[in-house]
Design a protein that fits this description.
Order of helices and strands: HEEHEHEHEE
Helix content: 25-40%
Number of helices: 4
Oligomer: single chain
Strand order of the largest sheet: 3-4-6-5
Largest sheet: 4 strands, mixed
């Protein structure tokens, strides 16, 4: 999710140990240039029509892994941007509940702030393991970090 411009989708395909076995689907509101071995779906994951198209691309199977690098359009107000990112993250979590197989894993980009605990509490209820990770390439002053979620449990 949040696949444009395509770097994350390319990385996901590289991680695929059997280059022709796994289906990698990139989804974004924006257009994405083609990436070899990656199917692209332009749309909003909150939209049922987009969810149905994704389901067809996955042969009506649930995903093993969902990654979200999605962020809303920022307006420059850190608090409002954080709240908008939180809202989007809650949408991603709702999507995991319908699109991720039991035992599956997810990675979600978050923008840390006063409401971060709401997102962490929600994923803690649905995953066996929740870990915050900050990539070394991320600036130390950046509020951007990721949640590594392992072992999805249906509730």
């Amino acid at each position: 999710l949040g696949a444009a411009p395509g770097g994350g989708a390319s990385l996901a395909k590289l991680v695929d140990s059997d280059q022709n076995k796994e289906t990698v689907v990139g989804i974004d509101l924006l257009h994405m240039e083609p990436v070899r071995g990656v199917k692209f779906l332009q749309g909003d994951i909150r939209d049922e029509a987009t969810q149905e198209k994704l389901s067809k691309l996955l042969d009506y199977q649930k995903a093993d892994v969902i990654t979200s690098d999605a962020v809303p359009d920022f307006i420059g107000d850190k608090f409002i941007d954080h709240l908008e990112a939180n809202s989007l993250n809650m949408d991603v979590i709702r999507f995991c509940k319908i699109g991720l197989r039991v035992g599956g894993n997810a990675v979600i980009k978050i923008i840390q702030g006063p409401e971060t605990d709401e997102v962490v509490d929600e994923v803690t209820n649905h995953f066996n393991s929740v870990q915050k990770i900050k990539p070394s390439a991320s600036r130390s002053e950046s509020a951007e970090t990721y949640l590594l979620l392992r072992g999805y449990q249906q509730s």
